[in-house]
Structure formats: structure tokens, C-alpha cells
Amino acid sequence: MSSSVQYLLLPPFCFEVKTDIPFVASNLKQVYGPRLIDSAECPDYFVSVQKAEGIRKFYRPQARFFSDQQEPFQPLQQQQAYAMLEWGMNWCVASHEMQYVIIHAAVLAKGNKAILFPAPPGSGKSTLTAWLAFHGWRLLSDEMALIQPHSRQVTPFVRPICLKNNSIQLAKAWFPEGNFSTVASDTHKGDVIHLSPPESSWQQHTEPAEIVGIVFPNYKVDTTLDIYQLTKTQGFMQFATNAFNYGVIGTQGFSTLCNVIEQVPSFEIFYNDLSAVSEFLLQELIDGSC
User: Fold this and answer.
1) How far is CA 151 from the centre of its chain?
2) Positions of E strands within 136-240
3) Which ranges in 97-165 belong to alpha helices (H)?
4) pLDDT tens digits, one per residue of 32-57
5) What is the pTM of this model?
6) Which of 123, 130, 191, 273 could be disulfide-bonded to 119 (CB atoms 3.0-4.6 Å)?
7) 101-160+197-286 sits in which CATH class?
8) Distance between CA atoms of 267 and 37, rounded to whole angstroms?
9) Is the dihedral of CA 125, 126, 131, 132 positive or negative?
10) What CA–CA distances, in Å, run from 225 to 26, 133, 135, 232, 245?
11) Are 62 and 50 in contact (CB under 8 A)?
């Protein structure tokens, strides 16, 4: 099969996407819908996911990801190719976009008030993100906060939500009408699927929001909701741990993180009740913020 070439308009970026793997193309159409177009004048990134050549074509087929001529990852099983593309687009932005201070965090908002959710894998961040996005919150990002330097303003980078392992069946039960990709099994993160956010989030994908709080989530099966407000020092240390590039961009990155931490409260929460989390966020950070 010859490669297909299409374009993803994902403000503030545009990706040219090339693939010769049919289910990658069909997944793109499923989760991105009208964001996937046939032509674009000036793509920011040229990416491709291609079948690996050689003996691997016949024995445990693999896929390879390229950004221009770079191949940042080892080949993966071909059935993981779509997840690889999503991770590759993350890599492009995290590695090259130095006009933002980039934090590994989900970003959700009510109106123009945004909350950041930085968290390591296994914290339940993406499950919480999906639940909030389908219960009246606006998704700006599941994976990275693009913060304008020397400000609290976050630029949206709306993408599908990456769900893993047990969260996959939960999300399919919660959102039976959702647009899901196929499952990539046995990845380094376990089984992975991507869920398109509600149309309302896509429609507001150029509307920035102001950070009013930072919440470090930790799912804990036996805890309804425990909340701990962090000191500025504690908040900064956890915040900086989740920063992709603040060390690279130097003083600008450091001062931006300090500015955010100084101006907004930060919390660590342990929870198993998503509606209780939403109520806390609304009362403490949205309705209670300036």
C-alpha cells in the first residue's frame, strides 16, 4: 500500500502526517474528525509512521516513527503504531517549542480559568481528565501545558486523551458515544487507547485561559478525597519536576514557574470520587479565585 499524506490542524501547530499503515489513517479520522484535512500551506512538523522493512515485515511486524529525518524512538510492534504517532507528536512539541514553558500536565478550564494537573504515570491523571472533560470542563490539553513566559496564560493544545489499562473499560462504560482509537496493547505503559474530547473543547481550541490553581492528583482506591495545600517551596519543587524545558530556556523558564507558584495555590489530592474532586475544584479554585 502506498503512503497517505494528510494534515492535522492542531493550533498552535500544524502537522503533516504520512503513513502506510491503514489503521493509523483510520484512527486519525476517528479521533480527530474535521481537524484532519487534505492540504495545508505551512506545516510546522513533518511526521510519519511507516512499516519497518526487512525480515520484520514477515515476523512480528514493526513500525517506525520519523520527524523529518530524525527517528527519536526504537521501532515498536506494528499494532502500537497509532499510539507511537501520538507520542511522537508530543515529542516534537516538547523537544522544539521553546517559546513556551512546557509542563507535563493536563489542563482543564471553566471559562477562562484554568487548572493544571501535573502528575507522573499511574496517578490517575488522564482518567480524571477524561471524566472532567465530559462533565462540563473544557480540555486544553491532556499531556502538556503551554505557558506563555512571564505570565499565567496557557495556550490550548487540544488532543485526544490517552487512557491506559483499567481506565479503558471505565471510559468506554462512562462515554459509550465517545470516539476511541483502537487499543495498542503491551506498550511500555500497558494497554493504551486515545479518546477524542467533546466537540466543545475542539471548538474552543484557540481560546487561552489563565492559571488559577495547580493540583497534583493521586488516585487512591480507599480514599474519597483528602486535600493537602502545599507550601510555595513544595509546590515549586513538584511543579519543576514536571517541567519539560524550563532548564533549557534558562532564566525565562525559572521566573515563569516562580511567577505561577507565587500567584496561585497548589494542592496535592488523594481521591477515588471524581465528583468530589470536581466539587472541590469549583468551590476552591474556580468560584473562589479572583
Assistant:
1) 21
2) 138-141, 144-147, 153-155, 161-164, 184-187, 190-195, 209-219, 225-229
3) 125-133
4) 999 999 988 899 999 999 998 876 66
5) 0.93
6) 123
7) alpha beta
8) 40
9) positive
10) 40, 19, 18, 22, 32
11) no
